[in-house]
Amino acid sequence: MRYIIWLLRAVLFLILLGFAMKNDQPVVLHYFFGYAWQTSLILVMLLFFAVGVCIGVIAVLGKIFRQHREIDTLKHELRLKNKLANVGDINPDIP
Fold it and tell me: Which of 10, 28, 39, 94 places its Cα 20 to 30 Å from the Cα of 47?
């Protein structure tokens, strides 16, 4: 199974490498106030992909932190209920 995963990774890498090599044409990005940036197409695509991933991760972080807080409060409530349940128990060892 490990070899199949490594084979899939190698195939994916070769496909992406070929994609990058085929898209190396220069492109010009025009900004405001006459600024322009000339670079290869694959760098522009990689940059926008990385920015999109960062925005997606930041969008999900709020939900993850909220769930983490909720899990902590539920664990605290569970510990408190277990502690209260043990206090009311009668010890059968004591006559």
Answer: 10
